[in-house]
Amino acid sequence: MQAINSLPVHSGELWTARQRQMHPIHYTISYRGSFKPELPDFFINRYLKVPGVVLDPFGGRGTTTLQANLLGHRAVHNDLNPVSVFLARSRQNVPAMKILEKRLDALQLDRRMKPTPEEKERLSPFFHPRTLSEILCLKSELLDNMEDPAMRYIGVTALSRLHGHSDGFFSVYSFPQISIMPGAQRKNNARLGQKPEYRSIRERILRKMKRDLSLPLPGVFNEAARGNRYISENSQDLKTVRTSSVDLIVTSPPFLDKVDYISDNWMRSWFLGLESATSSIELSVMNSLSEWEDFMRATLFEMGRVLRPGARAVVEVGEVKSRSVLLNLEQVLAGLLPIRVPGGELAVEEILINEQKFTKLSNCWDVKNNEKGTNTNRCLIVRKNLRKA
Hints:
single chain; 389 residues; alpha/beta; two-stranded antiparallel sheet
């Protein structure tokens, strides 16, 4: 691992520490491991002066893609998890509020739909039977009309309301960001002396949509978003992304073995009819630093291939605790560079550290700060340079 003492390192408050300062559509849905929209906003404004193509190889809930569109840039959202692809694509084409209200009002949610025995066993700790029946009706409508932009947006809003810790959610008191297991929810119910009561899902969806669309989308959004691509490819082999076709990458790769995205999103996968698809994919969960380095070395090469000469990649990696040692992963990544890539060389340009107290994992449910996930936004900036003759 090469020394990086000579690299420029800049730290400070790069963007506001206040919560929910960007367009409210960013907060349609939460997703464990996502960064704040201020991060891609900062770097897109810094590096792109004319409309371009922004890639996120680890797309998550689509924060980079959404912010790129809000600023007038096209985007490529990639993630192996099909739930992630739905979350991003559902906000590519956002109908007017009047259209959404009309579509929501037309849904037949009062049909009595019975869960299967397995569904009843898994979901009864969370939902009143009548609420569950409405959820099943909505699920059926969504799966039958997945190409309808209004239905997709209603669907992603419903996903955000499935389970949580207030009356605004469909479930009894639970955790909003992670789908906990049914056994854990039963224990939670017993501990709190609670049982699911009926909650109308239509009114909760409508309330959330109105809040998330309370501000108009900028005029550049729709035209930019029409040019988006949503793909599910290995970050080490983005085979449908052309060489030297990307103007900026803003991403946050998996940090060793800190997050299990499949288990965390089991209920969302169920609602979208994607459980069989998600169970068969192998998301990148690394158990050792050397394994993570090998994974990132190949990923960096692929980033370098798709970047145009002169373009940059911003890789937010934070810090993790591994075997009682606190690792600054941007330093680990910097030690893997430079590398030769098609059309040039990928090299470190600088390190930017956002000093706000921000964690990728909530300090709750026995997840403690500095033990799992990140404590700061530590961003490695790499640039594709033309290779010297």
